[in-house]
Specification:
The protein is mostly helical. It has one domain. It has helices at about 5-15, 20-40, 45-65, 70-105, 120-130, 130-155, 165-170, 170-195, 200-215, 215-250, 255-295. The longest helix is centred in the C-terminal third of the chain and has 38 residues, at about 255-295.
């Protein structure tokens, strides 16, 4: 199977296996994708709103030291985030392995060896190890991002743009490097999980994943599948935002009960449609990675001792 054939075959296989959509979407959501799907439904605060909300806390922290309430707030946020990353990462690893084994059993891959090794804890550890460069980039870029956010609060930019976008435009190189590191970490982690399921150890899986990623066919999978997912998130997010904005206008203008329910139904339909497209895109990405590794796996041989 050629690289292009593997991409096409993986897409066709995804279209006829709805269960893969559910597994892929669940893995995407528990790893943080849920936040991306709900961002269009959140009214982002203005610069003045952020200053009013955070100003007293920051002033008290700078001039009076951390108060017990401030420490409790920070501890709660950090603890909740750590718990989510641990439980979400473990659940995502288990879903990953299940999806890899299901895709590897597809008839398009022929009579090849089926990956049955590995467990959720090992897959979870591999994912985190693959993101060590991402952690280093975050540690390097944290200070410039904080400085940019502080400068935006002190000297706001174009008021027609969201605060988050204005902060990004102040340090685009930092945000760009963070995105590249994250995408590369996700690719290496996903490939390593597939090598782990094929029987390699943790260290060997990571080494093989890096070696696999630098192949032109793997780079094509990386670019095409992530571009498809990014396009779905961008277009779908805009559609959800437009439907949500329409619903707010309907509610504000005190339209009839029927019109309000139509607006709510439209929002629900657009959001669910976006989630469905995301499930297709993530399932295709997962299947394409599995096909990329699987097409290089040797076919199974018949054991003469069985006859």
């Amino acid at each position: 199977m050629s690289a292009g054939g593997a991409l096409g075959a993986s897409l066709l296989a995804v279209l006829v296996h709805p269960r893969w959509w559910i597994l892929a979407l669940a893995g995407f959501l528990v790893r943080g994708g849920l936040l991306l799907l709900f961002v269009p439904l959140v009214q982002l605060p203005t610069t003045a709103g952020l200053a009013n909300a955070l100003g007293p806390t920051l002033v008290g922290f700078v001039f009076g030291g951390p108060s017990p309430s401030f420490l409790l707030l920070v501890g709660t946020i950090v603890g909740g985030l750590a718990l989510w990353l641990a439980l979400g990462g473990l659940a995502g690893a288990a879903l990953d392995l299940d999806l890899v084994r299901r895709v590897s059993a597809d008839e398009e891959l022929g009579d090849r060896e089926r990956p049955t090794a590995g467990g959720p804890w090992a897959a979870f550890l591999i994912r985190w190890l693959a993101h060590l460069p991402t952690v280093l980039v975050v540690a390097w870029g944290a200070a410039p991002l904080v400085d940019a956010a502080y400068a935006e609060l002190i000297h706001p930019g174009d008021p027609t743009l969201p605060v988050a976008l204005r902060v990004i435009l102040r340090v685009p190189e930092v945000v760009g490097l963070l995105i590249v590191a994250w995408v590369a970490g996700e690719a290496v982690g996903g490939l390593a999980v597939r090598h782990l399921a094929a029987g390699a150890g943790i260290r060997r899986s990571l080494v093989r994943a890096v070696a696999s990623l630098i192949r032109p066919s793997a780079l094509a999978v990386l670019v095409l599948t992530n571009a498809a997912l990014a396009l779905v998130l961008l277009v779908g997010g805009f559609a959800v935002w437009a439907a949500f904005d329409h619903l707010r206008i309907v509610l504000r203008e005190d339209e009839t009960f029927l019109v309000q329910w139509i607006g709510l139904g439209l929002l629900a339909a657009v959001w669910l449609g976006t989630a469905w497209l995301v499930s297709l895109a993530t399932a295709w990405r997962a299947a394409a990675w599995t096909f990329e590794i699987g097409r290089r796996r040797p076919t199974r041989t018949i054991d003469p001792g069985r006859f």
